[in-house]
Amino acid sequence: MRVAGIDAGTNALRLLVADVARDADGTPTVVDEIHREQRIVRLGEGVDATGRLSTQALDRTWQVLADYVAVLRASGAVRVRMAATSALRDASNGADFLAMVSSTLGQLPEVLTGEQEARLGFYGTAAALPAQWGRLLVIDIGGGSTEWVVGPAGPAALAAPLQAVSTQIGAVRITERVLRSDPPTREERADAQRWIDAECTAALTALDLTGVEQVVAVAGTALTVGAAALGHALLDPYTLHLAEVRSDRIHSAARNLLTSTRAHRAALRYVLPGRVDVIGAGGLILSRALTAVEQRTGIRAVRLSNRDLLDGLVLSLATALP
Hints:
Layout: E1 2-8, E2 12-22, E3 28-40, H1 47-50, H2 55-75, E4 79-84, H3 86-90, H4 94-105, E5 110-111, H5 114-126, E6 135-141, E7 146-152, E8 163-167, H6 171-177, H7 186-206, E9 212-218, H8 219-229, H9 237-240, E10 244-246, H10 247-259, H11 262-266, H12 279-297, E11 301-305, H13 309-316
Parallel strand pairs: 1-4, 4-5, 6-9, 9-11
Antiparallel strand pairs: 1-2, 2-3, 6-7, 7-8, 10-11
């Protein structure tokens, strides 16, 4: 069955078209990935300050969504699941977004709770991993929030009880609220770190990390910082997928991104144009998250993954995932 998922995040609008099926035991799997695309639309621009989606952000999103609808029609996808996350949870005029999507896509998107976002993201990440990886902590740093989930690797993730926490720290949110200078001042960096550390402590206090064997960081922020840490010239999500990176290399890359100017970051070919202004904040979140995890588990490395919420949306169309 050919299906599609669309993820309307705070920073990016992403599309995945794939053929899915069930194994003999009923486990949903992606048989073939047909089309994967992301474009930076910054849907959540200014939402942290105003509580509203701007007209400009809605227009940028509409233009990309219209392109995605054309891809869907050409691909022959028979089912589509579209989800919106942090920006829509925070915006008072979310009805404007819902109306725009309904008129363009022909169906309403779901506005996921933080916990739903975390769980679907975990399914998308963990289901395709080897079961031998054991118990995982998956960290998904978005534009408006960061999700933390503990559960098993492999197909068991689809049915296992999970622990999920969503925190209000994201690359766009922290940049807009705190890291306003170019480059950020020492005081701004300290303020951002205090905020992030408090949220990391709250998240990890709420989770039982007993038996966690692997930490997996997913999506664009993690892949970008990972590319920097590994010395890659370009951002290739498929090359970076499942790569292991020592935490100290993440810390160094994150520090360099945070303290550099926007002009310097713009010249780095592994930083997409829409991430140039927010990757410093994203890197700081990842670095502080790994520091907090190491203090509690002793784990000093992270795996990268380009499988996340978008993949969870697609898998959910082949089963009864929430």
